[in-house]
């Protein structure tokens, strides 16, 4: 069993439904008084993060995906608005995670299986549709640094959708002045995965065919 198979079996339901998570479970914060000035600052930072996500037309970056046991896999992530994403683990990998803008798929070429989730039922909805999820369900988490923003996104009425924590750093030249460095997700079964991004490239020409795949249930041959 290769490492991708191990990650898939242990936590890739999360990757396919979100692909993320830090080393901690994010507990609900107790209600507390927030001074008006602080609340206004938090709202401004949240709006800034949403604007940065919306400003990305296309992006390609290297990613490292780590599950809760510390197993890691690497590949290339390609993102295109609206709602399209591809996690490519390499030509020799058994796995592909891909969204066509409506649904998120985990394609398993080892066992010729395809699993599908609606985008809105996935923590990745916060990344692929920030205007819908982040503004309504996002909470700014203090980081202790003015250059780092941490946003926890979850729908308290739908805990089965899991949650995602998006981490940004201020960076000149990145869309909206913020660069998404990594995200963390926790699914309903407390499976956690972390995805870290490096070598970001923005504004690339990305063909629609990037977000298509050959269904292995219809053919025993891998796509080329």
Report on the architecture of this protein:
By secondary structure, the chain is an alpha+beta fold. It has a single domain, classed as outer membrane lipoprotein receptor (LolB), chain A (Clam). Helices cover 21% and strands 36% of the residues. It contains 4 helices and 11 strands. Strands 6-5-4-3-2-1-11-10-9-8-7 form an 11-stranded antiparallel β-sheet. The longest helix has 19 residues. The protein starts with a helix and ends in a 22-residue tail after the last strand.
Keywords summarizing the entry:
4 helices; alpha+beta; 11 strands; 11-stranded antiparallel beta sheet; outer membrane lipoprotein receptor (LolB), chain A
């Amino acid at each position: 069993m290769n490492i991708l198979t191990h990650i898939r079996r242990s936590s890739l339901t999360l990757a396919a439904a979100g692909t993320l998570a830090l080393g901690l479970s994010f507990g609900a914060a107790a209600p507390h008084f927030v001074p008006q000035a602080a609340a206004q600052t938090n709202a401004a930072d949240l709006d800034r993060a949403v604007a940065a996500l919306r400003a990305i037309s296309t992006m390609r970056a290297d990613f490292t995906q780590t599950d809760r046991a510390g197993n890691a896999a690497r590949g290339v992530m390609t993102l295109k608005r609206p709602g399209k994403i591809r996690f490519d683990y390499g030509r020799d990998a058994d796995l592909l995670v891909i969204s066509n803008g409506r649904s998120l798929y985990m394609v398993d070429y080892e066992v010729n299986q395809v699993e599908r989730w609606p985008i809105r039922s996935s923590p990745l909805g916060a990344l692929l549709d920030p205007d819908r999820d982040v503004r309504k369900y996002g909470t700014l988490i203090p980081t202790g640094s003015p250059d780092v923003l941490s946003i926890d996104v979850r729908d308290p009425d739908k805990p089965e959708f899991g949650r995602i924590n998006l981490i940004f750093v201020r960076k000149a030249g990145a869309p909206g002045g913020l660069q998404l460095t990594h995200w963390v997700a926790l699914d309903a079964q407390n499976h956690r995965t972390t995805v870290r991004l490096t070598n970001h490239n923005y504004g690339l020409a990305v063909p629609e065919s990037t977000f298509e795949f050959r269904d292995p249930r219809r053919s025993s041959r891998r796509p080329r």
